[in-house]
Design goal:
The protein has one domain: Nuclear Transport Factor 2, Chain: A. The chain contains one helix and three strands, in the order βββα. The chain has a three-stranded antiparallel sheet with strand order 1-2-3, with no helix packed on it. Helix content is 50%, strand content 32%.
Length: 84
C-alpha cells in the first residue's frame, strides 16, 4: 500500500483509527486503508515506528557517505590518469 498522507485520526471504543490517503493520477485524494491500533499500546507503536525510521535514516546517511567517498576516490584516480 502506497500512502501520501493521513486524512484523519480518531479514537473510539479504545481503538485509534488512522485513515490513510493516496493521490490518484487525476490529482484527487483517495482513501487507501485504515490502521487500527488498540489505544493502550498506541504509544509503543508510535515510538517503535519513530525508532525504526531513525535507524533507517542513519543507515541511509552511512550509505550516502560511503558512496561519496567512493566517488571522490574514483574522481581522484581518473584525474591522475588524465595527467599522465
Amino acid at each position: 500500500m502506497l500512502i501520501d498522507g493521513i486524512s484523519d485520526v480518531t479514537l473510539a471504543n479504545g481503538v485509534v483509527r488512522i485513515q490513510l490517503n493516496t493521490v490518484n493520477p487525476d490529482g484527487t485524494d483517495a482513501k487507501v486503508g485504515t490502521i487500527e491500533i488498540p489505544a493502550n499500546i498506541v504509544g509503543d507503536i508510535v515510538n517503535g515506528l519513530a525508532t525504526s525510521v531513525n535507524e533507517l535514516n542513519a543507515k541511509l546517511i552511512e550509505v550516502n557517505e560511503a558512496n561519496q567517498n567512493t566517488d571522490s576516490k574514483k574522481d581522484s584516480k581518473d584525474g591522475k590518469k588524465k595527467d599522465k
